[in-house]
Design brief:
Ribulose 1,5 Bisphosphate Carboxylase/Oxygenase, 2 domains
Length: 215
C-alpha cells in the first residue's frame, strides 16, 4: 500500500471522528484472505516496535522482587507485582483478570517466570500478554522505553488483525510510518505476503472506519 493512500485514509478518519474529551488512538485493521485459520500454524502473536512513540502512554506491569520493583517504580512503570501479590491474585481470579485487562504489557524477572505461569498464566496466555522475561541485573527503564513504542498483533480465529498505530494528535507522517511498520510485520508472517491482505481500514477509537484506497 502506497504512502499517499494511507495518508489520505488516516487524515479522513481523524477528520470524521467526533470530538471527545479524551485523546483517541488511531487504529489500523488488516483484513486477510486465503488463510485457513483452522490450522494453528497459521495463527500468530507478535510485537512490533513502532518508529514513532504514540502520544498516549501504555500501561506496563512489573513482576519481581522488592529491589527490582523499586527500580521499576523509579523508572515510571505503572504497576508493581511482588511474589506476595502473585499469591493473592492466584486466590482471587476476579482481581487477576482486572490486573491483566488494565495492563498492556508485563515484564517479569526471569527466575520468577515459572511462578508467573503457574499463578497468572491462564489469564495472561489467552490475551497474548505473557511477560517478557528480564535478567535480575537489567535496567527496567530500557524495557519501559521499548514497550512504550510497541504494539501487539494477534491472529486467531478471525482473519483480521487490529493494531493501534498512534494517537489522533500525532503528525500524519508518523502515523503513516507506524502503519507501514505494522503492515510489513504482518506480511512477513503470511505465506503469500501482501497477497493475503484483502483490505485495510483506519479509524479512531470512537470514530467511523475509512477504507484505505477509497479515501
Amino acid at each position: 500500500m502506497d504512502d499517499e493512500s494511507l495518508k489520505k485514509a488516516i487524515s479522513k478518519a481523524i477528520k470524521k471522528a467526533p470530538k471527545r474529551n479524551f485523546l483517541e488512538t488511531v487504529e489500523l485493521a488488516i483484513n486477510l484472505k486465503d488463510i485457513d485459520l483452522r490450522d494453528p500454524s497459521k495463527r500468530f502473536t507478535a510485537q512490533v516496535l513502532l518508529p514513532h512513540k504514540p502520544n498516549k502512554d501504555v500501561s506496563i506491569a512489573v513482576i519481581g522482587d522488592d529491589a527490582f520493583l523499586q527500580k521499576a517504580k523509579d523508572a515510571g512503570f505503572n504497576e508493581m507485582i511482588s511474589k506476595e501479590r502473585l499469591d493473592e491474585l492466584a486466590r482471587n481470579p476476579k482481581e487477576a483478570r482486572k490486573v491483566v485487562k488494565r495492563n498492556d504489557f508485563f515484564i517479569a524477572l526471569a527466575p520468577m517466570m515459572p511462578l508467573v505461569g503457574k499463578t497468572l498464566g491462564r489469564f495472561l496466555g489467552p490475551r497474548g500478554k505473557m511477560p517478557t522475561p528480564v535478567p535480575p541485573n537489567a535496567d527496567p527503564a530500557v524495557f519501559l522505553n521499548r514497550l512504550s513504542r510497541t504494539v501487539s498483533l494477534r491472529l486467531r480465529q478471525n482473519p483480521v488483525i487490529h493494531a493501534k498505530i498512534g494517537t489522533k494528535d500525532q503528525p500524519i507522517e508518523e502515523l503513516v510510518e507506524n502503519a507501514k511498520a505494522v503492515l510489513r510485520e504482518v506480511e512477513r508472517r503470511l505465506d503469500q505476503g501482501e497477497r493475503n491482505v484483502k483490505s485495510l481500514y483506519v479509524k479512531t477509537t470512537m470514530g467511523p472506519s475509512v477504507k484505505v484506497g477509497e479515501a
